[in-house]
Amino acid sequence: MADYPNGALQAGTPAPDFTMQSAPDQSVSLADFRGSPLVLAFYPADWSPVCTDQMALYNEIHSEFERFGAKIAGISVDSAWCHVAFAKNRNLRFPLLADFHPKGEVARRFGVYDESIGMSERALFVIDGEGVITWSYVSPIGVNPGADGILAELEAMAPAQVTA
Amino acid sequence: MSETLHRPQLTVPLSERDHVLGPATAPVTLVEYGDFECPYCGAAHPSVVQVRQTLGDDLRFAFRNFPLSQIHPHALQAAEAAEAAGVQGRFWEMHDLLFANQRALELDHLLGYAAALGLDLDRFALELEQHTHEPRIREDFMSGIRSGVNGTPTFFVNGVRHNGGYDPESLLQAIRESA
């Protein structure tokens, strides 16, 4: 069994590689996002019973992420089929990745799997174009972490991206 | 490095641009970021009314727009209607009407509310058509994003995000604890 980090990976750590289904017939890997900042938003599950869940919020401000040339992807242990239905229902404009098999493996590698509930924590990672984590944040599970931390980090990264 | 963002703060303080009820000198300030089509905001509305009644002049209340237009197709236009009423001095009357009629937010309904409030209908309709107030609503929205608004409704008690419920007791308790 692989060694998993004890707690969320911190800034300065290379992001662990992953390959996950982004659709029932499609997979993406970390390498596919090279060259642009990537926001990974781990969340416990699709279909949380509020109208303004975390993914809906990111959908509203998708253009703000695009302004920084950043991509965003949501990750939960739900299957690709479940993600398809959820994304369609919420009209989501960014991919949801299925950390489904082996269940929670990617969350474990990022140090944000909650064994007691069998889901990931609410965790955010900003990864630069070289694949290095520049910011991470774990929210209390019941608290939607919003977007201000992500945008502040993307703003901080922006000059480096321009001069690079 | 992970940061502590559990209790975000209001980054854009209240100013003359805001819609405010209660005296500027009130010891407590409650700010709501809300969406007129959001049922949870509708449920929070009577709570706010009750908290205002309980605290009287000790409370200053402000409402900022946070329309989640991807999931609430009428939310942005409803916010525009509130702002269009606002420039005619009737923001709060429209705000109350919209929350009282959350399932009737089509353009015809909005024009009907404007008529009921005795607004200059030509001006109201033109401002909706030209989206005159959309930039201001966007400003509200982004100020919320940068303050840690994560859904609707989100309340700030004396500038700090309130993470608890929005029944009157929870709001009043948060207000007492922040004093």
Task: Offer a quick outline of the entry.
With 164 residues, chain A is α/β, with parallel strands linked by helices. Chain A is 27% helix and 24% strand.
Keywords:
heterodimer, A: 164 residues, alpha/beta, Glutaredoxin, 5-stranded mixed β-sheet, two-stranded antiparallel ribbon, 9 strands, 27% helix, 24% strand, globular, B: 179 residues, alpha+beta, 7 helices, 5 strands
Architecture overview:
The complex is a heterodimer of chains A (164) and B (179). A five-stranded mixed beta sheet of chain A has the order 5-4-3-8-9. Chain A has helices at 54-60, 62-67, 80-90, 105-109, 148-163, and strands at residues 19-23, 26-29, 38-42, 71-76, 96-98, 113-114, 119-120, 122-127, 133-139. Chain A is built from five helices and nine strands; from the N terminus they run βββααβαβαββββα. With 179 residues, chain B is α+β, with helices and mostly antiparallel strands. Chain B has one domain (19-178): 3-Layer(aba) Sandwich (Glutaredoxin). Chain B has helices at residues 39-55, 75-86, 91-100, 107-116, 121-129, 134-145, 168-178, and strands at 19-21, 28-34, 59-65, 154-157, 160-162. The longest helix of chain B is centred in the first third of the chain and has 17 residues, at 39-55. Chain B is globular. The A-B interface holds A 8, 10-11, 50-54, 56-57, 59-61, 64, 90-91, 135-140, 143-149, 151 and B 1-3, 5-6, 8, 11, 35, 38-40, 68-72, 141-142, 145-152, 163.
